[in-house]
Design goal:
heterodimer; A: Uridine Diphospho-n-acetylenolpyruvylglucosamine Reductase, domain 3; Enolase-like, domain 1; 3 domains; five-stranded antiparallel beta sheet; five-stranded mixed beta sheet; 11 helices; 27% helix; B: DNA polymerase, domain 1; Aldehyde Oxidoreductase, domain 4; 5 domains; 24% strand; globular
Chain lengths: 320, 927
């Protein structure tokens, strides 16, 4: 989850909650130090928000980014363990939207019955790390970690997802592209936490696919990835929503490609349309996984494949 | 040294009581709520079957079930298992081995065993809901667990067929006299599947001091310490800080005496990122809560050299002042007149190949503990070379060698890197100085930063052939980036020129290998000592030559391969046992079939193309022209066991089993009578290091000799002839010759201090001759041979490679244990795949197992093995070495197959999708 910063120097003995012991103060005190390190595991969102309002915390959810970031270093942040918040786990269908609770895991996504528009998200879910990771890592954590290679972001972009942010006094919703601001940077404010991801019903239509390009089959950070959602009416593309990840600081929609596909008949020529469409949104870097030029080329190719796969043409599996 | 009195430690964090169930039993622990579950299981509950390989979810070794679902225990806060049910590997056997555990053993799916618990737990969850999974389902379920030994194929088979192993386990114990050639289940196998096996980090004493190593964040820097005493005072629970100033002996170690140059703790200057400069020892909880960011050390960064071409340039700063041009050493072999031969050749080809640092990536990071036993320092740690550890540790710590005892634990993979000492002198120093046990397990990050790598190579070569397709000459030159310290750099520089011809008759030849210092990671021993790199150079040029000659690539190799009676490039005449021809011949039908398959596929496919590649290997077993003895001691105990002092460290490859099989048949007693003693330097003679594919050959030969000698003693005692048979029946030895039988009550015999009534000890040292100034001589007594075909598909738009099949023919002389041979082949191929397609260690950038990629269970295709047995007159029962050979052909076969598919040769490995596509684009642009 996102690092919310560390400033424990002046604080002392704030109240914290331990699961099942609501109201009982618990805290850690670093021996020989001035600072106090707090740990809390609230059982209701309101309790969690109250805590967030009174101190700086690092939020612990699935732990799959939290512990690797920690490495062998000792803990020095206040830790708000949200694994006691049962109300934040699960997928709910309302009149307006599909609501994915912040603690919903990738395995939950895979196992939940969802419309075909979510197929890309389900495919991405199966590519997050390994089964062991998918069983505990949360969708919201993937967003808060804000890695350029976050597997969940492209598919959620194609679903026009927004992020529900709550603090003790307020609730606000940000479109996903306004929430993830850059490499390891989000719009999360002090005192806030992500409580849900919402997919509007009007966007949960059509069919979708996800293509991940990596240098090995499992447990791999993407070189590039693409998600595509297409709505077909009368044999023609009525709507195309396409996003590419790992090719810019934040996964991006590729509007030129989307526009080029709209109104076209459903056939293999869609791939050609992708190949000749403008795709200026990407700004890939060269790194150990691949060169910038390679990413630019490969991104276009996997977009074409995702588009074809979304309408049932071709495969969506491109691990080396 | 700065020290305070022990016993003042306090935990820096408040603990809480957490109650849950482990393997059906209720437990309660008192730990900080965010303590990793892996630590709780291992440190609090002493359930050390759950392994820690990375602490980041990258390796899956710590996989446990929480309420039936597999998770990485290293990523689970203790608080999250409150009230939950946790299953670890220790909970899988219920009175007897589970069907899956039995299947793992019977398939040979566990080698070193460090990843085995994670795999078993993950597979148990799969089998629970799907008892007969498909291959794809198995791979999907196990994709999150890395294995570096097996190549995964036997794991997949063991899981898919687990449901057939419901009736216990068949140990496949061979009849007396038929151990060699049989495939009994590895004798050390059961603890590997139950979680009982103790690796380096699994048996730390509870009262041990924890040790942290302060390491350099810079490639090259000067440093000085601030007020260490004040820092200790500010950090309760710290017992002391130790620096180079505290080292009582010679602060300079190295695996090859004359080249030794590495300090255990740096003295004022560091030459590589990750170099150790100080040790902090303290109580476990205090060390866990210790933040080193305010450690009082001041760094002065200095300019650094990372590329050999910079390091050898005129005027480059010297990394070691006594080594001009940063040249550690070079190796040279010359035969005939290569320039003249190339000038006269009908066709010649030239090329360059560049390779990368490759990390060993064993799943067990270095770990161990040390303590004083009287005036003897005892080091209990994972290793490949206990006697070398003993000697270097004694030297650094100023102790007599008999005052250092190395007790090897099970070793969770080594592949060459655990030949060098790592933490032994460090924990030894702390134990000596404090008088308390001292324990240390490297983090994945420090293991990767500070231990050795495969040498990156920049090679160029030219090879010529006559119009009939006979090789007439070759010149080869390679710079090998040996990093900051010598390690095995000299061995690489020497081995490469001897082997760079491949197993082919090359009458005119010149090869030079240079080991060049940089401020990069220390490059040392890694499965093949530079030969895998050189073979890429030679075998890719062979394909080009065959193309120019219009010859089939396999036929071309068959035409040129060494045969009995040929002389090698060092002028060594190989009288017999040369099996490369038979390996290549055995591949012929597969080659024909694979080429036809590829052609058929390519006719129908434009987006992706198939390719087929072949490459060979040869490899001399044991040290190059140096003494290389092994000693084996075996005896009959008064209680009627055969006690074998098995000093050939088993790092997963199977020496515990293979050496015993050899000894059993030489002695004439069955395997089940054997009790093994480990390679503990206090009790077992030196069987040399586990490297250079020497254990089956050299130690095996010593075991054969010792077995025969023991048999002789018994027969002489009983006054019977060589024709007699012997048998152990309780504490009686019965001897039969024809109709005559005799029974010896062992309790009536004279017993030695070790409880033995008959003992034999034999040494074997392979007969080699030195190489002269032109590299001519007899560097090895035995060579092993092999050849592999790679079939693959290249996605022409993305540059990705999908491996379809590897067919591997290896001449092992005699397969002592065919299942273990197959395991070596598959594991070597997996590492070859990694080297060819994905492995590139970049210091400062890929010091973890998610940026540094090794093959997963989905990356190794089916492997067909063909065991060729052309006996060697020198090896035990005709056996040759195998461990390194199996890796060598894979990468060049893959590169040749990629070229076959695409028309382009990728000249830098790994051939990542990015590099392959760039090569394809470049070729298109040239059109």
């Amino acid at each position: 989850m996102n690092l919310t910063g560390l400033d424990t120097g002046g604080k002392s003995q704030g109240k914290a909650l331990w699961a099942g012991q609501s109201g009982t103060a618990r805290f850690w005190e670093g021996s020989g130090r001035q600072s106090v390190i707090r740990y809390a595991k609230p059982t209701t969102v309101d309790e969690a928000l109250a805590l967030l309002g009174e101190d700086r915390w690092r939020i612990l959810a699935g732990g799959t980014d939290f512990y690797p970031a920690q490495g062998a270093k000792p803990f020095r942040d206040n830790i708000l363990d949200i694994n006691g918040l049962a109300e934040l786990r699960g997928i709910e269908e309302t009149d307006e939207c599909w609501r994915i609770g912040a603690r919903t895991t990738w395995t939950d996504i895979v196992r939940h019955k969802l419309p075909p528009a979510f197929d890309a998200l389900k495919a991405a879910a199966r590519e997050v790390g390994s089964v062991q990771i998918q069983n505990v890592a949360s969708v919201a954590g993937n967003l808060c970690n804000a890695s350029p290679a976050a597997d969940g972001v492209p598919a959620l972009l194609t679903l026009d997802a927004d992020v529900e942010l709550r603090s003790a006094p307020a609730i606000r919703h940000l479109p996903l592209d306004a929430f993830v601001l850059g490499n390891r940077r989000t719009a999360l404010q002090p005192g806030e936490m992500v409580t849900a991801i919402r997919v509007p019903k009007r966007s949960a239509v059509g069919s979708s696919a996800f293509v991940k390009l990596g240098a090995r089959r499992y447990l791999v950070i993407s070189i590039a990835m693409a998600a595509a959602r297409l709505v077909v009416e009368n044999g023609v593309v009525a709507e195309a929503v396409i996003a590419v990840g790992s090719c810019s600081a934040v996964a991006r929609r590729v509007a030129g490609v989307e526009a080029a596909l709209r109104g076209r008949p459903i056939n293999e020529a869609l791939a050609d349309a992708v190949m000749s469409a403008p795709m200026d949104e990407l700004s890939p870097i060269s790194d150990v996984r691949g060169s910038a030029e390679y990413r630019q080329d490969a991104a276009r190719e996997i977009v074409a494949r995702a588009v074809c796969a979304a309408i049932g043409l071709g495969e969506s599996k491109v691990a080396a | 040294m700065s020290m305070v009195q022990p016993g003042m430690a306090q935990s820096g964090m408040e603990r809480t009581d957490i109650a849950f169930e482990v393997n059906g039993a209720s437990v309660s622990v008192s730990v900080p709520p965010v303590r990793r579950l892996s630590q709780v299981l291992r440190d609090e509950l002493r359930l050390t079957g759950t392994k820690v390989g990375c602490d980041a979810g990258d390796c899956g070794a710590c996989t446990v079930l929480v309420d039936g679902n597999p998770v990485c225990a290293c990523l689970v806060p203790a608080a999250s298992v409150t009230g939950a049910s946790v299953t670890t590997v220790e909970g899988l056997a219920n009175g007897r081995l589970s069907a899956l555990q039995a299947s793992f053993l019977e398939h040979g799916a566990a080698q070193c065993g460090i990843c085995t618990p994670g795999l078993l737990v993950a597979a148990t969850a799969l089998l629970e809901r799907n008892p007969t999974p498909s291959e794809a389902e198995t791979q999907d379920a196990l994709g999150g667990v890395l294995c570096r030994c097996t190549g995964y194929r036997k794991i997949v088979a063991a899981v898919m067929q687990a449901s057939r192993h419901m009736n216990g386990i068949d140990l496949r114990l061979p009849e007396m006299g038929h151990a060699v050639g049989a495939s009994p289940i590895r004798l050390d196998g059961v603890p590997k599947v139950t979680g009982d096996e103790k690796f380096g980090g699994d048996s730390f004493p509870t009262d041990a001091l924890s040790v942290l190593v302060v390491r350099s964040p810079h490639y090259h820097a000067g440093f000085s310490f601030g007020d260490l005493d004040a820092w200790i005072k500010a950090h309760p629970g710290i017992a002391g800080i130790f620096t180079a100033a505290d080292i009582p002996g010679k602060n300079c170690f190295g695996v090859i005496g004359p080249f030794a140059d590495q300090p255990a703790l740096a003295e004022g200057v560091v030459r590589l990122r990750g170099e150790a400069v100080a040790l902090v020892a303290g109580e476990r909880e205090a060390i866990l809560d210790l933040d080193l960011t305010d450690f009082p050390i001041a760094w002065t960064e200095l300019p650094h050299l990372l590329q050999p071409r910079e390091a050898k340039a005129d005027g480059a700063a010297l990394i070691h002042s006594h080594r001009p041009a940063n040249l550690l050493t070079s190796g040279y072999v010359e035969r005939g007149d290569p320039e003249r031969a190339l000038a006269a050749a009908a066709v010649t080809v030239s090329g360059v190949i560049e390779t990368s640092f490759v990390e060993h990536a064993y799943i067990e990071p270095e770990a161990g503990y040390a303590y004083m036993e009287g005036d003897t320092l005892v080091v209990v740690a994972c290793t490949q070379a206990p006697y070398m550890d003993r000697d270097d540790t004694a030297k650094v710590l100023g102790l007599a060698v008999d005052k250092v005892r190395i007790v090897p634990t099970a070793t969770g993979g080594g592949f060459g890197s655990k030949l060098d000492v790592s933490l032994q002198p460090l924990i030894g120093l702390v134990a000596m100085k404090t008088g308390r046990p001292a324990a240390l397990a490297y983090t994945r990050n420090e293991s990767m930063m500070s231990t050795t790598k495969r040498h990156p190579a920049e090679m160029k070569a030219t090879i010529g052939a006559d119009a009939e397709g006979h090789i007439t000459g070759m010149v080869f030159e390679g710079d090998f980036n040996t990093g900051a310290y010598a390690s095995w750099g000299p061995t690489v520089a020497n081995r490469v020129p001897v082997h760079a011809s491949g197993p082919y008759l090359t009458p005119n030849y010149r090869a030079t290998g240079y080991a060049i210092h940089t401020n990069g990671p220390i490059a040392g021993a890694f499965r093949g000592f530079g030969v895998p790199q050189a073979t890429i150079m030679q075998e890719t040029l062979y394909d080009e030559l065959a193309g120019k000659l219009g010859m089939d690539r396999l036929d071309f190799r068959l035409k040129n391969c060494l045969r009995d009676g040929c002389a090698t490039v060092t002028g060594q005449r190989l009288e017999s046992g040369v099996g490369i021809g038979e390996c290549l011949e055995q591949l012929q039908p597969h080659w024909t079939r694979a080429l036809a398959d590829a052609e058929a596929f390519n006719t129908a496919s434009t987006a992706s193309k198939r390719g087929v590649g072949v490459a060979s290997c040869w490899y001399g077993c044991g040290n190059t022209s140096l003494p290389n003895p092994s000693t084996i001691k075996v005896g009959i105990s008064v209680s009627g066991d055969v006690v074998l002092h098995q000093g050939a460290v088993d790092i997963g490859q199977g020496s515990n089993t293979v050496i015993t099989q050899i000894c059993a048949d030489a002695l004439g007693l069955p395997l089940d009578k054997f009790k093994l003693k480990s390679a503990d330097t206090a009790i077992t003679p030196d069987a040399g290091k586990t490297s250079a594919s020497r254990q089956t050959f050299v130690t095996g030969k010593a075991a054969e000799k010792a077995g025969r000698a023991l048999r002789e003693k018994i027969l002489r005692f009983a006054n019977v002839s060589e024709q007699a048979t012997i048998a152990l029946d309780g504490a009686n030895l019965s001897i039969r010759e024809g109709d005559a039988a005799r029974r010896i009550d062992l309790s009536e015999l004279k017993v030695d201090a070790d409880g033995m009534v008959f003992v034999a000890e034999e040494t074997y040292d392979p007969p080699t001759l030195p190489l002269d100034a032109k590299g001519q001589g007899k560097p090895y007594a035995v060579y092993g041979y092999g050849a592999q075909i790679a079939e693959l598909e290249v996605d022409l738009k993305l540059g990705t490679v999908k491996l379809i099949k590897i067919t591997a023919a290896h001449d092992v002389g005699r397969a002592i244990n065919p299942v273990l041979v197959e395991g070596q082949i598959e594991g070597g191929i997996a590492q070859g795949i990694g080297m060819a397609l994905m492995e590139e260690y970049i210091p400062g950038r890929t010091e973890n197992l998610h940026d540094y990629l090794i093959p997963t269970i989905g990356d190794v295709p089916p492997v067909e093995h063909i065991l060729v047995e052309v006996p060697d007159t020198e090896g035990p029962f005709g056996a040759k070495g195998l461990g390194e050979h199996v890796l060598i052909p894979t990468a060049p076969a893959i590169l040749n197959a990629i070229r076959h598919a695409t028309g382009v040769l990728v000249t830098k490995v790994p051939a990542t999708p990015s590099r392959i596509l760039a090569a394809i684009r470049e070729k298109e642009a040239r059109r």
